[in-house]
Amino acid sequence: MLDNRKNCQRCWFIRPLACFFLTSALVPVVACPADMPNTDNRSRSIDPNQRQELLKDLPSIQMFKKSPPSRFLVDLSDVRRGHPYMGRRAERPHTGGHIYFKIPENINEFAAKDYPPIYAVADGVVTRVDYSYELRSMFEPALEKVVANKRYGIGLTFAKDGTTDITFHYSIEPFVRPQNVALYEQFIYVKPGQKVIKGQVIARMYIPNNKLLAQKSHIHFNLLREGGGGFISPSIFNTQVVREFHKRWNLFPNNPDAPIPPCMGYLLQPEENPFLRRAVDAL
């Protein structure tokens, strides 16, 4: 089983950010692990001068409890396995759900547009894009060496909790370290400050050619309370989506928390509940 605490890291608040204006030139869909670490993280956030104006009309997070969306962040037909947000009361906590993808047989022939789509789960504003962000070094058995993989990601701010902005965090983790630092740009379809609508394709999931690495490629997803409020459970989807996702979890056999009922958040502390500061077992 993957140790999620090692293999998937939420990096927005851990390291200093380097922000660059990037070109949109396409690059070949090829990624090869590199030996030497390179911390040239490339991220952009919304212009602070525009933030208040762009986000002022966002709905209350409570609206998503009353009318939860049916649009999941990926097509459920693409999901091979996964798990919900594992709260801090779990045996093995992990502050985000995971989605692992089915591996296409002809992936070597794929262009960027052929990879699995990633959707906006609600109307909102893109407040952050990570074009390339380095994860912690770890030993990768498939490569028989230590490597610091790089991810990409999107922050979609879609609701408010009082005056606090709520962001849906997409951490897209292909489990590779591209030699071309611009590789992921062709899979990102939005930019900071852009308004999007529910169901819009905002990115695509790059899956590497190496099948052992492809099995580990995943999206980590959670909600964030902006301004230091921490990670919270992405429990905003309707019952049908939750049940269909649950059918595809295929939990690893040594998961100490199994069995887990259908939910998007399990064994949550009060501060991990997006709707009410109260502990809940399954949400």
Can you characterise this structure?
It is globular and about 45 Å long. The protein has helices spanning 4-7, 48-55, 63-66, 211-214, 239-247; strands at 42-45, 79-83, 85-86, 97-101, 117-119, 124-134, 138-140, 145-147, 150-161, 164-176, 195-196, 201-204, 218-225, 230-232, 265-268, 280-282. 10% of the residues lie in helices and 30% in strands. With 283 residues, the chain is mainly beta. The chain has one domain. It has 5 helices and 16 strands.
Question: Mind sketching the topology for me?
Answer:
Elements (H helix, E strand, L loop, with lengths): L3 H4 L34 E4 L2 H8 L7 H4 L12 E5 L1 E2 L10 E5 L15 E3 L4 E11 L3 E3 L4 E3 L2 E12 L2 E13 L18 E2 L4 E4 L6 H4 L3 E8 L4 E3 L6 H9 L17 E4 L11 E3 L1
Parallel strand pairs: 3-15
Antiparallel strand pairs: 1-6, 2-4, 4-13, 5-12, 6-9, 6-11, 7-8, 9-10, 10-13, 13-14, 15-16
Characteristics:
283 residues; mainly beta; nine-stranded antiparallel β-sheet; three-stranded mixed β-sheet; 5 helices; 16 strands; disordered N terminus
How would you sum up this structure in a few lines?
The protein has 283 residues and is mainly β. It contains 5 helices and 16 strands.
